[in-house]
Amino acid sequence: MARLARTASVATLLVAALVLAACGDDNADKNRYIRDLAAAQTTYKANAERIEAGATQTSTPAEDRRTLDRFATAINDTIVALRRLDVPPEAAAEHRRFVGVFMTWRDDIERFVAAIKNPTQAGVARAQRRIAAANLTFNAALRKAGTDIDAALAS
After folding, report:
1. For residues 146 and 18, is the Cβ–Cβ distance under 8 A?
2. How far apart are CA 55 and CA 49, in angstroms?
3. Residue 54 CB neighbour total at 10 angstroms
4. How deeply is 26 buried, as exposed, middle or buried, from its count of CB atoms within 10 A (0-12, 13-18, 19+)?
5. Distances (CA, A) of 74 to 29, 68, 89
6. Domain span including residue 30
C-alpha cells in the first residue's frame, strides 16, 4: 500500500520537472500555467506522502480502506485543482488528457477499495495485482501526458 503512493508521487515529480522545462521563452501565460501545474502536483505529492506515512504493514483491512479513501480524496482534490488552471490554448487537449490520467487513477483506486470491502484471500490477491498494474499504467500515462504538454507548449 505504501509503495503505491510513493510510486505515484514520484511520477508526478518527474512530470513536474518535464513541464517546468517546457517553456524557455518569456510567455507569461505559459509560465503561470507551468507554475500552477507544478503547484498542483506538489500538493498532490505532499498529500500522498502524508497519507503514506500513516500506512503501516500491520494495518487492518478497515484501516487500509480508510487510507485508500484518503488517497482517493487527494486525487480528487488534484483533479479539481487541475481543472481550475488557466490552460494556454495550445496545450488544452494535452491538459485534458493529463487530468484524465488522474481521473482514471482515482477510478482504479475506487475499484480496488470496492474489491477489498468483503475480502477473500483470492479476491485480495487479484485486487492487489490489478492495482499494481493500474499503478504502472498511471505512472506511464502521467509521464506521457507531461511530455505531450511539454511538446505543445514548445511549439
Report:
1. yes
2. 10
3. 12
4. exposed
5. 27, 10, 27
6. 2-154
Q: How many domains does the chain have?
A: 1
The alpha carbon of residue 57 and the mean position of all alpha carbons in its chain are separated, in whole angstroms, by 23
Give me the average pLDDT of each 10-residue run along the chain (155 residues). Answer: 50 50 63 92 89 77 81 94 95 96 93 80 82 88 90 86
Q: Which helix (H) or strand (E) holds 78?
A: helix 61-83
d(CA 68, CA 140): 21
The position carrying cell 481543472 is 83
- Residue located via cell numbers 520537472: 17
